[in-house]
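Tutorial sheet, problem 5. The three components below are modelled jointly, 747 residues in total.
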Amino acid sequence: MRRVIAFALVIACAAVAAAVAGAAQTDATRTAKAKPKLPPLPAEVKERGRWNIGIKCDSPPFGYIDVQGKNAGFDVEIAKWFSRFAFGKANRISFTCVTTPAREPSLTTGRVDLVIATFTYTPDRDTRIDFSRPYYKATGRLLVRNNSPITKLSDIAGRTIATTSGSIYDRWMKNCYKDTKVLVTDSFTNALLAFRDGRADALMWDDTVLLGIAVADPNLQLTDDLFLPLPYGIGMKQGNDAMKRWVDSRLNLMAKRDAFQPLIKNSVPARNLPTFAKNVLRPGQVFYYSKGDLTTQCT
Amino acid sequence: MPDWVDPVAHYMLEQGLRGTLQLAAISLLGALVIGVLFGTLLTIEFRPLSWAIRLYIEIWRGLPIVVTIFIIFFALPAIGQTLEFSPLTAAGIGLILWGSAQVAEATRGAVGSIPREQHEAAAALGFGWVGRHVFVILPQALRRLLPPVVGLAVNIIQNTTIAQVIGANELLESGERSVERLTAPPPIGLGEVHAFEIYGAVMVVFFAISFPLTRLAAYLERRLT
Amino acid sequence: MRLLAFEWGYLSDYGSELAAGLWRTVYVSAIAIVGAFVIGLVLGAARAHRVPVVSQLAAVYVEVIRNTPILVQIFMLYFALPEIGIRLDAFTVAWLSVMVWGGAFNTENFRAGFEAVPQRFRDAARGLGFGRLGAFLNVTLPIGGRIALPSSINTYISVLKNTSLLYVISYPELTTVALQINALTLQTVETFTVLAVTYLALVWTMSAGIRLLEGHLALPEAR
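Model answer (structure tokens):
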């Protein structure tokens, strides 16, 4: 009897070993087949040995300066991933702080290779620079005070709404809500300050940022409206196909590995993480850019 | 002292203030070198040269410094791909253009106020135009220039804050970034606004630097007259 | 070369927006200049005559404003005051910031002007029976005001130029509007050429016009 059991065990081990070896074999062939598919690092970056990446330095949670005075944020973390992909280390990056109006010019002049700075895709911008595949999906929301007369989007008529200068929201309201007074500021925090100070009746911006504020402040809330789904893309110089292939492939890789989700853990209150999960790329998820100019499409 | 103060103070003083002082030093130096040269050349009775320098002075004094800096930062790269500068460099060039125009004007006045006899005596001693100016005229003129130059130094130090609008990391910008971080809800920041304390501190730092220099300029002015 | 490809259609497309911005620049500057004149006159007189309390407070005001950057003052008024409960809208901060700044410099201008009035003039006024205020209004002010004219003019021109810094609070004056147009269209060369030419035209005209005025108002001895 013992011999039978021992024999069965040996067969079982052999079977397992064969299965593992077989799997490893197929895995190896699969990897061996997959390796050549990853596009190579663009030559200019490889020669330099570092990335030049433009990021925001005053826009939490995407790009800001942390307590130690270092660049931090969701976009910054993506940049560090790119550095690891390219050079094996996370610190082969020269960060350049870009303000909103400086994003495009810093690409066209070659000051930076990539711009990862809450850069929303628009067909108009696409005529001058190239965008990667979308990596973050933001939706517009409206932040109001609890007892505000504004309960839905259509209530903004005739009122003052704060947002950032030149943003998608700025242009959309100017096109579609002509009797709304748009109070523009050069950065989101200034728009928030303007709203808090009572200079505006509501604040229009990306859901992920507004959600954190609404949750943290019991006197504020979001209206139920969801509008202007506008994904962020990574900006790069127009015509740089090698760069686009590399960036898109690595974004795909990160999505497959579900690498985006952990990146926001350090930036977002824990109770908001589930909402963020819908905005970042998860495995098998794809975001799309709208081909038309959404700022002219009034509902 | 609340917890948030220490790291913010470190960041602002070590990174921000350093940027301010570097920018101010380079701008002052550039402004002095170019300004004294142009101001001296302006005293030569050669129309094309004095008109060219006069145009330079009127343009860079006439434009608001922020507009000059915007032109260097945004417009130059659009003309020529190689003409693109980092925010601090662009701000430095802008401040040098403005500062040199101020110094040139002051130098012209100072050199012009040196009596003819000095020129004649130097010429009699065998000095050429350059030698005359370098060894006799300029040393006297520069002494008269000292009060306005100290005043200009104060202005340049204060005008480095204009670099903030293009995102250069000087003291005001470092304060703004800190305000942004602190305003963000936890875990990034505190969800509190500390703009008054931080910008107030920036004012105090600039006052501490400028006030003694302003007093010095006034003292030098009194000693001259 | 890119410079030669200036798009003249730019002016018809964006001319009205830029004109609106220009109007706001001039309007805010005008308010601030008038205010700075009044502040400089009153506080300069107080300082020159050593009026107790007012003179010292004015000195503090002048030293604080002159020794801190105007951009930081704008930040304080717009971003920091709300924290202690004072909310000012962008337009108020616009004229208030440059007026307070100009007023401080003008106080020094007028003080120097009044103090430069020769003592014998003031003594003569007293000898004629004028009281302190009368002496000031009839002798010190007209003469000292004219002495202060050149430096005052420089301050007023600087007030106009400093309105460009209101970009940081997004008050839609000329510079802010131009930058917004540039961000939208990236017609950089056109935008900044128009911006530079407009400011130079403004400043040079103001400069020349007021120096003409100065020629008319100059003291007989100075002519």
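Marking note: The mean pLDDT of chain B is 90. Full credit if you identified this.
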